[in-house]
Design brief:
Layout (H helix, E strand, L loop, with lengths): L15 H11 L4 H10 L4 E3 L7 H15 L4 E4 L2 H4 L3 H10 L9 H4 L1 H10 L4 E4 L6 H9 L4 E3 L15 H20 L5 E4 L10 H17 L4 E7 L4 H18 L5 E7 L9 H18 L3 E3 L12 H12 L13 H23 L4 H11 L17 E4 L5 E5 L7 H12 L10 H12 L1 H6 L9
Parallel strand pairs: 1-8, 2-3, 3-4, 4-5, 5-6, 6-7, 7-8
Antiparallel strand pairs: 9-10
């Protein structure tokens, strides 16, 4: 566990059979088993984000989180160098100053150290990263006995990378999913969590869920047996609940019965309140959305989100606060089920209009790349040149996220008109609005919860 000890380097990985045997010998549940148990008990499983460069500090962080908050799943968030396969860069920084890494460089530390982390806690681990090509990372994770792996060829490319062609990322993730299929045949089901949060800023529910569906179908075709479809909290209670409830409906429509599907909610990933009381209100609010939407798992936030990377104490407090949503005393809460049903109907319709033409193509991977090039698939505010980013989301007066501009998405005229009607009374749908007004409006939409709590935006750094 000594970070000053020589790094193990790219030693040979154990066979899949040996890795499967190791997981069985660990004596703790896999991520898929934890999720299945949580859903059966009708409780929301909790998971924090966490990752540091130092092996010793990563070990301490995982142990402290488990000791004080008992999360159901623990995270290994991976550093940026490893995400982009810059393993030598990760090694150089790790040897010089591990604190300069923004996550844990698992490939550089090696699978033996990965197993040390796994054996230090009773909760299963998940790899969270952001890599368009995660093949080396996945193999190291499997050898470490890690049983959940986030990402996909769309969701871990377009929000993060500028120039990686979709054909390349899709091919890399097809290999990851095929390896999951092989592991399932050998008796180890790896949970494949899909990053439906995308750019995490004003993401319309149907775009998030459409990308989830496409990645899930691709994974299932390669033999993946457990899929977690993740959705980012948008801020409108009924719309968010409807989006989570859409996930099992979409699974029934598009995936075989052999694939177990779980809904995951990421607590609000936009601009967070700076005042602790307001931030904690938002954390509890998100946890209630997860419970009432039927989410199997919640990815939690902390009261330090507005200030940067949270410390261990803040992570613990965030987990403990979110866990209150599982209280049996909250069973009295009721919602506007008619409004939720209306939102659900429209979300399912929009997703179908987006994904059905893509899934009808003979080559799913080629069609995904072609559809993004033409704008028939798109995501807002993408970092990539391989997405047109012609769709523009805005908030309706009630806080729901609608489409101001739909670009070349294959929406029906009825769907376009409904979104326009939803925004008209907000003044967002005016064709004569100038660029300055549009930027001002989008900024207000992004700062939604600051406005709710009456907080002013943080001043720019001097």
């Amino acid at each position: 566990m000594n970070d000053s000890a020589p790094l193990p380097g790219p030693s040979g990985l154990p066979s899949h059979d040996e890795s499967v045997a190791y997981v069985k010998e660990l004596g703790k549940p896999t991520s898929a088993e934890v999720l299945r148990s949580a859903r059966s008990a009708e409780r929301v499983a909790l998971q924090p984000r966490c990752g540091v460069g130092s092996h010793a500090q990563m070990m301490t962080l995982l142990r402290d989180l488990e000791r004080h908050a008992r999360p159901d799943v623990l995270s290994l968030t991976i550093d940026s160098h490893t995400r982009l396969k810059r393993f030598e860069n990760a090694r150089a920084v790790l040897l010089q100053n591990p604190a300069d890494l923004n996550g844990y460089p698992l490939v550089t530390h090696g699978w033996e150290r990965g197993r040390e982390l796994n054996e230090a806690v009773s909760a299963p681990l998940e790899i969270r990263h952001g890599s368009p090509d995660a093949r080396a990372l996945f193999r190291t994770a499997v050898a470490s006995g890690i049983t959940s792996f986030e990402g996909g060829g769309i969701s871990y490319n377009l929000p993060y990378s500028k120039a990686v062609p979709l054909a390349e990322s899709l091919a890399a993730w097809q290999e990851v999913d095929a390896l999951c299929g092989d592991l399932a045949e050998r008796g180890l089901v790896v949970d494949r969590e899909l990053f439906g949060t995308l750019t995490a800023v004003l993401v319309p529910p149907s775009i998030s869920l459409a990308i989830n569906v496409l990645e899930a179908v691709a994974a299932a075709r390669e033999g993946v047996r457990c899929v977690s479809m993740a959705y980012p909290q948008g801020g409108h209670f009924e719309q968010d609940v409807a989006a989570l409830r859409a996930i099992p409906a979409l699974a029934a429509r598009y995936l075989p019965d052999s694939v177990e599907v779980h809904a995951v909610l990421h607590e609000f990933m936009g601009v967070f309140p700076r005042e602790r009381a307001n931030a904690e209100d938002l954390i509890l609010y998100g946890a209630l959305v997860a419970r009432l939407g039927g989410a199997t798992k919640l990815i939690t936030k902390t009261y330090l989100e507005a200030y940067g990377i949270p410390d261990t104490r803040a992570n613990v407090d965030g987990l403990l606060l979110a866990s209150r949503a599982n209280s049996p005393l909250l069973g009295f809460i009721t919602l506007d089920e008619d409004r939720i049903a209306e939102e659900l109907e429209w979300i399912l319709q929009e997703v179908a209009e987006i994904v059905d033409p893509v899934l009808a193509a003979p080559d799913l991977y080629a069609e995904i790349a072609s559809a993004f090039a033409a704008g028939r698939l798109d995501i807002p505010f993408s970092a990539s040149r391989h997405a047109l980013s012609e769709i523009i989301p805005r908030r309706a007066p009630d806080g729901a996220i609608r489409y101001f501009a739909t670009g070349s998405l294959p929406f029906s005229g009825h769907t376009r008109k409904r979104n326009a009607r939803g925004l008209a009374s907000a003044g967002a749908g005016s064709a004569g609005a100038g660029l300055g007004d549009m930027v001002k409006g989008l900024t207000a939409d992004i700062n939604y919860f600051l406005n709710v709590f009456g907080e002013s935006p943080a001043p720019p750094p001097s």
